[in-house]
Amino acid sequence: MKHKPLLRVSVLALAMLLLAGVFAGCRKEEAPSDDTTPKETEEQTPTAPGPYDCELPEGLDYDNATITMVCRDMEGVQDEFDPGEDQQSLVNKAVFDRNNAVQDRLNVYFDITMVPDNGTDTHATIARMVEQDVMGGGCTFQIVTAPNYTIAPSALEGNYMDLNRLVYTNLDKSYWAQGFNEMASAGNAQYMATGMATLSLYRFMYVTVYNNRIFTERGLEDLFDVVNDNRWTMEYQYELANDLYVDLNNIGERDDGDFYGFVSGARTSVDSYWVSCKAWVIGRDENNYYTYIGSTDRISGMVDQVLNLYYNCDGSYIIPYGDDNTDNAEIVNIFSKGNVAMANMKIQAIETGLQNLDFEFSIVPLPKYDSQQDAYYTNVQDQVTVISIPRTLKEADREMIGAAIEGLAYEGYRYIYPAYFEQALSYRYLKNQESADMLRLIYESSNFVMVYQGLATDVGWTTMIRNMIRDKSNSVAGQLAGVVGGIPAALEEINGKFQELEQRTQE
């Protein structure tokens, strides 16, 4: 029998742009067959599906149909859905196996168009291309993958379907990021989703990395235990780092060659504290629309704690505002020397910069604001890839596409999640239970509030706080006084757009 091709990948030229597993499988295990009398009723009662159990029905068959997708051909995301020619990489093989599992289960194959860097406004290229296609009534790509912050405004213009209306897509499953659902849904609708289908979800998480050797040699309590005991707070990290400075090169000045308790940066690294400290400006009302929940005391307290950790802590070394790269390169460079106990960075920086070290490291979430905070929260950078479906998708294809994206998310959980963390963290991460539990906690604490705070309120919150940390000054009270007055109107406008959009899609 002739096999269907696994992937058909094309690269879209610029001219064309202008025109338009270590877990249980998706199939439930069947009980061994026998011809004897059935067992007691209690033993026959099926187990209720869990949050990570896929509930796609058996026997779905879409007759070797082609599913068209569009993805970014850019560093950090180009291998999310296209595994490339090299299957030697653990991650590439996992993507290959994930795609193949979905294709075999549904009898489909993916035709993936990779959109290259066009040298200008790269991140928005796909969103604009799809907008033009939809406006012309077309559906060139049945599955759209693009950065969250470019799709979110486009969704408000009515370019994408409500994913809740797809028969086989179950966004309540934990292989879809629930922290994203909380921010991206509006009323009863949701037009984009992310989760274990996307590598960038993992890569763009900000975490605290710590040097196991330093903690062991100095008799410090392992941060796994501190996290699990709900004692991992900003104050705890300050007190821990404050005692860990040594002038190693004896030049009388603090530089990146000394021994430090903590390293971070004063620009993009600051954004994560909004999330980890739960200093949120927007929440949800009883109808799941945006409402203002900002607290001057909470936000000001968060800024005070960051300033204290950054500039009043003897053991901290902070990369200046202008040198705090989005790829965390300077933070990685200093931490990799082995003379830093803790550092904050994106997991992608671990993948690309912390290989072949002569010491082991572990990761935990960023600390809480205080021990009274209800949970740990992990910031995901707003360039994370989301999955959306154009509203012009043919009705006859909606069942198939709903099943396809559900399969991509679930099989990503089975294949990509374990493979990525085994490779990215380079040594043992799903091989000991404590590390596996911590990774699960970090994933389940992922949150996306920052991009939606800006979208919903029309305020540049990240810039506001970055500037305060850069200037080493807390001006929260004055800054909030200058913007709060306009927030109710901004929220009313965006909520109104969502309500109109939901009403229109139901007609």
Overall spatial form: globular
Please tell me how large the radius of gyration is: 24 Å
Average pLDDT value?
86
Give the DSSP E fraction (strand runs of 2 or more residues): 5-15%
Q: What is the assigned CATH homologous superfamily of the largest domain?
A: Periplasmic binding protein-like II
Strand count, sense and barrel status of the largest sheet are: 5 strands, mixed
Account of the 3D structure:
Helix 10 runs parallel beside helix 12. Helices cover 40% and strands 14% of the residues. A hairpin with a 5-residue loop joins strand 7 and strand 8. It has 507 residues and is of the alpha/beta class. The chain has 20 helices and 14 strands. It folds into 2 domains: 209 residues, Periplasmic binding protein-like II (D-Maltodextrin-Binding Protein, domain 2, 3-Layer(aba) Sandwich), CATH 3.40.190; 183 residues, D-Maltodextrin-Binding Protein, domain 2 (3-Layer(aba) Sandwich), CATH 3.40.190. It has a 5-stranded mixed sheet with strand order 1-3-2-4-13, with helices on both faces. The chain has a 5-stranded mixed sheet with strand order 9-6-10-5-11, with helices on both faces. A two-stranded antiparallel sheet has the order 7-8.
